[in-house]
Each structure stands twice: as structure tokens, then as C-alpha cells.
Design brief:
Blueprint: H1 16-27, E1 30-31, H2 43-54, H3 67-81, E2 91-94, H4 97-108, E3 114-119, H5 125-131, E4 135-140, H6 150-156, E5 161-167, H7 179-192, E6 195-199, E7 225-230, H8 231-234, E8 243-246, H9 249-262, H10 268-280, H11 288-302, E9 318-322, H12 331-342, E10 344-345, E11 347-348, E12 361-365, H13 370-381
Parallel strand pairs: 1-10, 3-4, 3-5, 5-6, 6-7
Antiparallel strand pairs: 2-8, 7-8, 9-12, 11-12
This protein binds 4'-deoxy-4'-aminopyridoxal-5'-phosphate (PMP) and glutamine (GLN).
Glutamine binds next to loops.
Length: about 375
């Protein structure tokens, strides 16, 4: 008889992103569920990838990432965030922010430590915490505004609290934190000697004249933070699964010890292609906010007059829509039904809470072609 494997993640199934994308494909629905662009990346970037593969850049890169890519990353952080990072000791290229986040948690968190999560929370964090033998402590964001109640965070801290996970711009809420939030966080982190794991994968997607507040640019937070980015979001190549983590040298050294045995390296020709493109078009990220804001507005204009209610997303790929005027159904049941009946797939946000509040909200991804957004809007107006 084969041994029975007792699950280390008994409550985890296939992610809602995979399930909703599969349902959209099966039913032919417009896929506004999983967060990925349905348009092409910059042509020069795809061409560079092919070129590097043809030129023979197909073997392992250095474990921490190609030096030229790490230098390009450091240049960009200086350009866009005004911070200096050392490409040798503070930048690690990883095969996707998901891996970087997993490695940071694994490196920093010990059995029975507590890690604070702000619900609704991106789905990869809690399993990584559990696998480390630690405990995820869920603090909900404020209902309606999705802002952080820092008094609630303070009240959740115990002598075992080791780390807090922050995500801005936020998935799934599309909200962003302000400088005052970072100040509050810094004061809590200093009082309790916490580490911060800051997920900033949507850093360039901030709208309506707001600016991204990076933990890296906060002098009290920077020395205690792992900060994660994803080339997938910035260059519309989510399938290339390449990102990077910035952390002070001592934290980076520990992260790399884990990274070298989880993945060892990120994909070599992809790293070359990104380094080329960043050198050729250093200002490309500055084009993104207006581009995505126009997509958000296209989608919202298209559902003007529908039964949905919303507050405009201030960042990310995602717009939340409140459907309480249209249905009493649970969001995860409704999402499936509407995908089949109206041909638009979305993501139920109750699944991102430990204890879902009584709200009726779905997440729609607007990283899509204008035609897709217009047609999705037309269909949503018929509900
Ligand atoms: N964090 C958040 C908030 C995300 O939305 C995503 C996107 N999938 C990731 C991390 C993971 O990024 P990557 O695809 O680079 O692993
Ligand atoms: N982060 C993407 C989203 O929020 C999906 C990534 C994934 O499928 N794991 O939709």
C-alpha cells in the first residue's frame, strides 16, 4: 500500500484565477477574471527574447540575476523612486514575484511566528506562511474604503509577530496606500521590531495623478523590508514569470539562500531581453499610468447606467464593482453563473478573506483591449 499523504495545505485547492480562466475558456466568455493583459508586449521586447535565445543565451544565469539586469533595475529605482540600491548585494532577480515572496517568507519566518495579513489578501501569502509553520493573523481592511485601520493592526500584534505583508497598489481592491500609512506602519514596525514584506508589483499603475508610495523610499521602513516587483505587470509579460526583490544586504543574503534551492535562477534569455529593453526605453514605465487609466475609464464608461456601483480604482489592473442592487447571491456562485449566462468572467473577492464580510463585490481586470472592455461593458449592462 502506498503511504497516505496528509496534506500540508488541507484548505487549499486550485486557485480561483486558474478556475475562472478555465471557465472563461470553456464557455467562450470574455475573461476579465485572471489578471493579465490580453494585448501584446512591446515588440522590441519580444524580438529581443527571440534574438537572445538564437544567440545562445540559454544556460544558467548567475544565481542572483544577470549583473546587467540588476544594474538596470538599480538605475530604474534611482530614476523613479529616488533611492540608491546596490545591484550586487540588494537586488535579486527571481522567477516571478510569487517566488520572491515565498523565499522572503521562508527565509524570515520561523515556526509559530505570526505574520499580519490585511484582508482581502493576495492568495499566495498565507500558504507560504503556513508552510513555514507560522501563523497568518488576518486583519480586515475597512469595509467600503479598503483602507488600513492601523489601530486594528496595532491591536493584532503580539510578542510573536514577526512580519507584516503590505500590498500597494492593491490586488484585488485597486486601492493604494499614502505616505501617512507608511508612517503609521513605520512607527508600528519600529515599536515591535517587525519585518515588512511589501508587494509592489503594480508600482507603475497608479492613477488620477496619485503617486506610488514605495516602502523603499521610506527611511525607517527600508532597512527592515523585502520589496517585490514583477516585470510581468510592467512589460505585459506575465507568462515570462520574472521579477525581483530588493532588500538590505543581510536580508538579501538570507533570501538568496532560499532562492538558490527553490528555483536557483530566473530564465536567462528573458533577463537579457529585459535588460536590453530597459536600456533602450528607460521611460517606458512612465507611459503605463495613462494607458491603464484610459482602460479603466473605458470600462467604467461602458458600464455607466448598469446596476453596478463603484469607487474608481486608484491603482493596479483591477476595478471592484458592487452588485448588491442586482443580486443577493454569494459572489463565488454568481461569478460562475454570470460567466455562463452573460459571457463575462470576474473574480469573487470573498475568497481573499479569512472571514468574509457581508458585501457583494466582484473584481474585474481592465488590463484588456478597449474592444474587449467595451463589449464586456455592453454585456454587463444587460444584467
Ligand atoms: N502579487 C500580486 C499582488 C499579484 O497580483 C501578482 C500577480 N500575479 C503577483 C504578486 C505575482 O507576480 P508574478 O507573476 O511575477 O509571480
Ligand atoms: N495575480 C493575478 C491575478 O490576480 C493572477 C496570477 C495567478 O493566476 N496566480 O489575477
Amino acid at each position: 500500500m502506498a503511504p497516505v499523504l496528509e496534506s500540508k495545505l488541507p484548505k487549499v485547492g486550485t486557485t480561483i484565477f486558474s478556475r475562472m480562466s478555465a471557465l472563461a475558456q470553456e464557455t467562450g466568455a470574455l475573461n476579465l477574471s485572471q489578471g493579465f493583459p490580453d494585448f501584446a508586449p512591446p515588440a522590441a521586447l519580444s524580438e529581443a527574447l527571440g534574438e537572445h535565445a538564437r544567440r545562445g543565451h540559454n544556460q544558467y544565469a548567475p544565481m542572483a540575476g544577470l549583473p546587467r539586469l540588476r544594474e538596470a533595475i538599480a538605475d530604474q529605482l534611482h530614476r523613479f523612486r529616488g533611492v540608491k540600491v546596490d545591484p550586487d548585494t540588494e537586488v535579486t532577480v527571481v522567477p516571478g514575484a510569487t517566488e520572491g515572496i515565498f523565499c522572503a517568507i521562508t527565509a524570515a519566518v520561523r515556526p509559530r511566528d505570526e505574520v499580519i495579513l490585511l484582508d482581502p489578501v493576495y492568495d499566495s501569502y498565507a500558504p507560504a506562511i503556513e508552510l513555514a509553520g507560522a501563523v497568518a493573523v488576518h486583519v480586515p481592511l475597512e469595509a467600503g474604503t479598503f483602507t488600513v485601520d492601523w489601530d486594528r493592526v496595532r491591536a493584532a500584534i503580539t510578542p510573536r509577530t514577526r512580519m507584516l505583508m503590505l500590498n500597494s497598489p492593491h490586488n484585488p481592491c485597486g486601492s493604494t496606500v499614502g505616505r501617512n500609512d507608511l508612517d503609521e506602519l513605520a512607527s508600528i514596525a519600529e515599536d515591535h521590531d517587525l519585518l515588512i514584506c511589501s508587494d509592489e508589483v503594480y508600482e507603475h499603475l497608479v492613477y488620477d495623478g496619485l503617486r506610488h508610495e514605495s516602502v523603499l523610499a521610506h527611511p525607517q521602513l527600508r532597512p527592515r523590508s523585502f520589496v517585490h516587483y514583477s516585470f510581468g505587470k510592467t512589460y505585459s509579460v506575465t507568462g515570462w514569470k520574472t521579477g525581483y526583490c530588493i532588500a538590505p544586504p543581510a536580508l538579501t543574503a538570507e533570501l538568496r539562500k532560499v532562492h538558490q534551492y527553490v528555483a536557483f535562477v530566473a530564465v536567462t534569455p528573458v533577463q537579457h531581453a529585459l535588460a536590453d529593453f530597459m536600456a533602450e526605453e528607460p521611460d517606458y514605465p512612465l507611459t503605463l499610468a495613462a494607458n491603464y487609466q484610459a482602460r479603466r475609464d473605458c470600462f467604467l464608461n461602458a458600464i455607466e447606467g448598469s446596476g453596478f456601483a463603484w469607487t474608481k480604482a486608484s491603482g493596479s489592473f483591477f476595478q471592484l464593482l458592487d452588485y448588491s442592487a442586482l443580486s443577493d447571491e454569494e459572489d463565488y456562485i454568481l461569478c460562475e453563473r454570470w460567466t455562463r449566462e452573460f459571457g463575462v468572467a470576474a473574480i469573487p473577492i470573498s475568497l481573499f478573506y479569512a472571514d468574509p464580510p457581508a458585501q457583494k463585490i466582484l473584481r474585474f481586470c481592465f488590463a484588456k483591449a478597449h474592444d474587449t472592455l467595451l463589449e464586456a461593458g455592453r454585456r454587463l449592462c444587460t444584467i
